[in-house]
Amino acid sequence: MLRRALRLGLRRGLLSRGLGTRRGGSTLDWTGRVSNIKKKIQSALPGGAWNPLYDTSHLPPEQADVVIVGGGVLGLSVAYWLKRLEKRRGAIRVLVVERDHTYSQASTVLSVGGIRQQFSLPENIQLSLFSAEFLRNINEYLAVVDEPPLDLQFNPSGYLFLASEKGAAAMENNVKVQRQEGAKVRLMSPEQLRNKFPWINTQGVALASYGLENEGWFDPWCLLQGLRRKVRSMGVLFCQGEVTRFVSSSTHMETISGEEVSLKRIQEVQVKMDCSQEYQPVECAIVVNAAGAWSGQIAELAGIGKGPPGTLQGTKLPVEPRKRYVYLWHCPQGPGLEAPLVADLSGVYFRREGLGNNYLGSCSPAEEEEPDPGSLEVDHDFFQEKVWPPLAWRVPAFETLKVRSAWAGYYDYNTFDQNGVVGPHPLIINMYFATGFSGHGLQQAPAVGRAVAEMMLEGRFQTINLSPFLFTRFYLGEKALEHCIL
Amino acid sequence: MAASRVSLHLMARNSGTSSIRALSRAVDSEGSQRKGRTLLQFLADYFCDVEAVREYLLRKQVLKVHQKNRFQGNEWIRSGHGLSPLEFRKFQEVPVEAVDASGCAINYQGLDNLLALKELQSLSLQHCPHVDDWCLSRLHQLADSLQELSLAGCPRVSERGLACLHHLQNLRRLDISDLPAVSSPGLTQILVEEMLPNCEVRGSDWARGLKLGLEEQAQGPK
Question: Which end of chain B is more exposed for a tag (fewer CB within 10 A), N or C?
């Protein structure tokens, strides 16, 4: 009753104002006005973002505990696990800086979306196994109150790798390692292959390995949106801007053997806003480099690799963008519902897309013929010359097909050994990496996020030991080579 | 004290196994002290430790509600129809041929129990609310023996999960009707029939679509 009286009083008061200017909307709901007043009071109190001179709501905060450079699936996964593993709720202020909120060039959303356990390194297999379990229970991990559940559109059809005589022994070894780690993989002879998939031409194939469970493909956009939604609800701050400068301080120390070492610590990250010269310095304790294809540039900004070559100071982060094409075609006589993601020994791969006899696939170009990563233009001649012939040889039904569309995306390609880089940098002690996965980052993102969060919070890997993926291997020359790269 | 705690534990967990309750009721009349000892002796005869009892009861709980089991050559055995654990021991070596788990809240981990049955010929997972595409990808372990599978009415099964049924080459009867998550039921049925040539696939009701057409024709000229 009091509320009604007040409302009537207000209305009458405003009507009688007449010439006075009225701010805000035309409807005068009491709850709306109260929440507006509350917001204004909160922003004016200390700790709020209120600035009496101009509106700073689009700028990132002046201080953050962790700044994650890059808002793709890896960056968001690190943010999620940081918030999930923090000891006290709200203990860590995390800021995710993403240059492009439409994700038009991000590797995450341009990916084919596959997940497999058929790797040669045990660490990669473990990462994929945990990520499959994460995706299977995604609505338990990423549930947000009052929001609908996520549907990843997962196709559990598996991966089928084909090997020639030369590669058969390596494939058998790999399958042994995969089975030891708990992956369900079956080896098939050419005859079994013909029986199961009669549309494959098995000439030249000596052995095939078929993943039975936890392998297939899903919708990466859905995973990204699910992570964003959950991470926002956990209190992570987002900022649309570009990191242009790191301000760091150095301390000169001596090692046990008497050598002088200069350890740097990033004090401040300067974030430049979109389409303006305005920037905000963000004081931070830790910086995570999850910038994907542009991680190399971010590392250079931080001063990694500025030193005489051959020394630790002179070791660059060997991650660079590599352009990869994906083509979508229609073939009315093509393989049916049972088709897995087939990876031929020539490097060509394809998978079914939907129920209408559409397929998508591609091939990684040879080292000498790498396309220019300057833009994401598609080269259709690449399909005609490099993808179609081996494809039609392996699956004769693909001799008649019609390309419907194509796109290109970047691999954050690790030129050293095509495996990810995780963990801190030895000299810049508060920069952590979560990048360089060379085409299998999406499928390992949940597990890698957890590993990096553990490294940041506990100082060591607790669940999956990713020590072979630390930065120091670039200096020591210890390659963690992955043989099964698509 | 330990004996009475154990017996309470059983009572709380035990909605389906009327037999053990019947047993403890029968022993009740002999007084509380003797009841404890007899029950414990009985348990000690058949299970090596408390963990084994709990596992046994958990397995029974997984196949609860409308659970019916059929052993080789025998009739369906329903829970709650007075089959005591003693009689179950008689059937220990006999392989399970058919499981009807319709309406059960069985999930991905729960399937472990069903996949251990290597001679299973018929499996009915009708109207199971938690069976989804990931669960279907595990069914390949039953490929050698499974002949009949029913997934009718499972709200989470989509055509993507049906694609991994191609491992089940011995399947002769498949029921995929009434799957709300499948986007185009007619097309899916055709593709599944192509995928499993020896299998009779029962999908959505064709006649329903025809009848609607006739009704529209009847109302048209009016």
Answer: C
Strand order through the sheet with B76-78: B76-78, B68-71, B96-100, B122-124, B148-150, B173-175, B200-202
A156 touches chain B (CB under 8 A): yes
Closest Cβ opposite residue B161 in set A156, A158, A355 = A156
Query: A with B: how many residue pairs have Cβ under 8 Å apart?
Result: 51
Determine the Cα–Cα distance for residues B55 and A425; give it in Å rounded to an integer: 49
Residue A231 to residues A138, A235, A335, B10, B203, Cα–Cα distance (Å)? 13, 7, 40, 43, 41
CB-based contact B160:B186 (threshold 8 Å) = no
List of residues 6+ apart from A53 with CB closer than 8 A: none
Q: How far is CA A3 from the centre of its chain?
A: 51
Residue from A338, A357, A358, A359 to probe the interface with B (highest B Cβ count within 10 Å): A338
Please state, in angstroms and rounded to a whole number, the distance separating the CA atoms of residues A213 and A135: 13
Distance (Å, whole) CA B135 – CA B149: 13
In sequence order, the 6+-apart residues with CB closer than 8 A to the CB of B186 are B203, B204
Nearest residue on chain B to A135, judged by CA atoms? B134
CA-CA distance, A341 to A385, in Å (whole number)?
21
Q: Does B77 touch chain A (CB under 8 A)?
A: no
Name beta bridge partners: A424. A432
Q: Would you give the end-to-end CA distance of chain B in angstroms?
A: 83
Provide the H-helix boundaries in A18-68: 30-44
What residues in A contact B184, CB-CB < 8 Å?
355
Tell me the sheet residues that pair with A125: none
Determine, for residues A154 and B167 on separate chains, whether the beta-carbon distance falls below 8 Å.
Answer: no
Partners of B163 on chain A (C-beta within 8 Å) are 155-157, 337-338
Q: Which of A399, A323, A388, A332 is nearest to A362 (CA)?
A: A388
pLDDT along chain A (486 residues), means of 10: 58 48 60 87 70 77 95 96 92 95 94 94 96 95 91 94 93 95 95 94 95 95 96 94 94 89 94 90 96 95 91 93 95 93 94 94 91 92 94 95 95 93 94 94 96 95 95 93 81
Q: Which amino acid is at B69?
A: N
For residue B214, which amino acid is it?
A: L
CA A154-B188-B124 angle, 5° bins:
80
* The pLDDT of residue A42: 78
Q: Which residue from B163, B183, B184 is facing A338, i.e. has the nearest CB? A: B163
Mean pLDDT along residues B83-99: 72
CA–CA distances in Å: residue A385 to residues A363, A380, A381, A397, B27: 11, 9, 6, 18, 83
Q: Where are the alpha helices (DSSP H) in A234-329?
A: 295-301
Closest-CA residue in chain A for B108? A136
- pLDDT recorded at residue A55: 75
Closest CA to A398 of A325, A327, A484, A486: A327
Q: How many CB atoms are closer than 10 A to CB A139? A: 13
Eight-class DSSP state of B150: E
b/e B107-142 (16+ beta carbons within 10 angstroms → b): ebebbebbeebeebbbbbbbbbeebbbbbbbbbbbb
Contact status, residue B204 vs residue B186, Cβ threshold 8 Å: yes
ipTM of the complex: 0.81
Structure tokens at B28: 């009740």
User: By mean pLDDT, which of A18-22, A478-482, B5-9, B149-153 is the weakest?
Assistant: B5-9
In 3D, which of A161, A169, A218, A153 has the Cα closest to residue A185? A161
SS3 A227: helix
Query: Which pLDDT score is estimated for A381?
Result: 94
How many angstroms separate the CA atoms of A268 and A265, rounded?
9
CA distance A70 to A101: 10
